[in-house]
Amino acid sequence: MTTTSSDTQSRTRRTGLPWPALLALGTAVFITSLTETLPAGVLPGMSASLGTSSGAAGQAVTVYAGGTALTAIPLATATASVPRKPLLLGAMAVFLVANTLTAAAPGYLVLLAGRFLAGVAAGLAWAILAGHARRIAPAGMEGRAIAVAMTGIPVALSLGVPAGTLIGEQVGWRAAFGAVSLVTLAVIGWIGVSVPGVGQPVPGVGQPATEQADTATAQADTSRSNPAPEPAKSPLRQTLGVPGVAPIMATVTAFVLGHTMIYAYIAPYLQHAGLGSATDAVLLVFGVACLVSIWYVGRHVDRRLRTLMVTGAVLFTLATAALAVTTTHAIVWGAAVLWGLGWGGAPTLLQTAAGQAGMRHSSAAADTAQAILVTLWNAAMALGGIVGGLLLQKSGVTAVAVSAAALGAVGLLVVAGARHHTFRDTHTTPRPTPTRP
After folding, report:
1. Whole-angstrom Cα distance, residue 395 to residue 134?
2. CA 103 to each of CA 99, 179, 180: distance values in angstroms, whole numbers, following the listed order
3. Euclidean distance between CA atoms 82 and 85, whole angstroms
4. Which one of 63, 320, 323, 373 is least enclosed by Cβ atoms within 10 Å?
């Protein structure tokens, strides 16, 4: 007997979170996040091997982010009717080829081409991953499922990049990228075996039957009363018009820009504070706090989205403000903890909010919202590196921390003012789906 995706989803909803599938998605997030920032840890060897300056080799990060930012929305829109699992496998296969090309690049231009293609594939994968985790989760546990899938981001920052740097120092930067390709190959097989398929995100999918009927009736009434309707809005404009989506994207831009500015230049800041030799330890403390944050957020995001988002914004703003006003060692260490606690759950919270807001319109709008989020996230990362560098050069490390704190405050104000359409707490626990004997 043939098993359909709806049958698979029904069984999943009866048995709780599909851990093998979510961990496979989380590993995909991990390797694509790790690869984005890996060049920063192997920059000296990469520049020496390719005969370029460190600044030129560092553009491997910018090109990756640019590939993601430029293509995530167009690709997500163009593939809106394609079933999610084959599309995800295809994106990961392209990522595997591109990353392998990076590892074997004979010259600088080939390296940049490989990095750009890897960024394109990663952007499409990121636009799919959160939505796929949401779709295969039990009702009422969608945020927790996204939290599991998004664990790969703080793990990549706190553990993956140092591990990749160690590999690069011991056996060369090409080996570090080669190791990523081997893990990618294993993840593709893991996704193929453990991740259930879901249908393409056409409008109406994921809506309750009554909502689908109402939608169909409304469409029929519109068709009878207006036989020549106006041209439909583009998916991008339509999604941005959904109540709650625009504030979420403004929050993403403010927080990622502020975080990237201070994270990218934390080494000069710690050097200025007299903690240059402890940079790795400070980042480890930050990473561990991130993991604690994402664990806690994952447990409570489905009921306390607003509370957690406000708390995270306050912690991030306090931490960066502390870094701006003092370099006292004890406060710097404490700020690293607060920063990690405030930031670690941010990807889960923002992607959950974007998915919820988009789903008020359709599953397609939810996926487009994720694509917009991915685009703004990577654009803010690229811009954060540029703006932070300019501030560091012209005004010093204190100006970088002050700007990060100001952006955190902006994000907090947006979250506080968006209480009507997004970042909502839900204090009721959904009833479990009854099972038939």
Report:
1. 44
2. 6, 9, 9
3. 9
4. 63
Determine the residue type at 353.
A
Please name every residue paired with 304 in a beta bridge, in sequence order, or none if there are none: 425
Tokens of 103: 């590892």
State the Cα–Cα distance between residues 419 and 357, nearest whole angstrom: 12
Distance CA 281, CA 289 (A): 12
Query: Per residue in 52-103, pLDDT tens?
Result: 886 788 788 778 988 988 888 899 888 888 998 999 999 999 999 999 999 9
Q: Is 262 helix (H, G, I), strand (E, B) or coil?
A: helix
- Cα separations in angstroms, 236 against 84, 138, 365, 371: 19, 28, 8, 9
Q: What is the CA radius of gyration of the chain?
A: 22
CB 78 within 8 Å of CB 87? no
The residues, ordered by sequence, that sit 6+ positions from 136 with a Cβ below 8 Å of its Cβ are 9, 12, 18, 21, 22, 145, 195, 196, 198
Q: By CB neighbour count within 10 A (0-12 exposed, 13-18 middle, 19+ buried), where does 427 fall?
A: exposed
What is the pLDDT, as a whole number, of residue 427?
A: 57
| Helix, strand, or coil (residue 425) | strand
Q: Which of 308, 333, 305 is nearest to 319 (CA)?
A: 333
Please choose, from the candidates 180, 7, 170, 171, the residue with its C-alpha nearest in 3D space to the C-alpha of residue 92: 180
- Pick from 423, 297, 353, 375: nearest CA to 127: 375
Three-state DSSP class for residue 366 = helix
C-alpha dist (Å) from residue 27 to 85, 92, 144, 184, 198: 15, 11, 16, 9, 19
Evaluate whether 215 touches 204 at the Cβ level (below 8 Å): yes
Residue 383's pLDDT is: 85
425 φ, ψ (degrees, to nearest 5): -80, 145
Q: What are phi and psi of 237, to 5 degrees?
A: -65, -40
Chain-centre distance for alpha carbon 164: 20
CA atoms within 13 A on the CB side of 301: 31
**pTM for this model (two decimals):** 0.73
Q: What parts of the chain have a pLDDT lower than 70?
A: 1-15, 40-41, 54, 157-162, 165, 199-233, 427-437
Per-residue confidence (pLDDT) for residue 205, from 0 to 100: 36
What are the C-alpha distances in Å from 401 to residues 261, 263, 284, 317, 392?
8, 10, 19, 10, 10
Question: Which residue from 311, 333, 312, 367 is spatially nearest to 154, judged by alpha carbons?
Answer: 312
List the end-to-end C-alpha distance of the chain, in Å, as a whole number. 20
| Helix, strand, coil share (%) of the chain residues, nearest 5 | 80, 0, 20
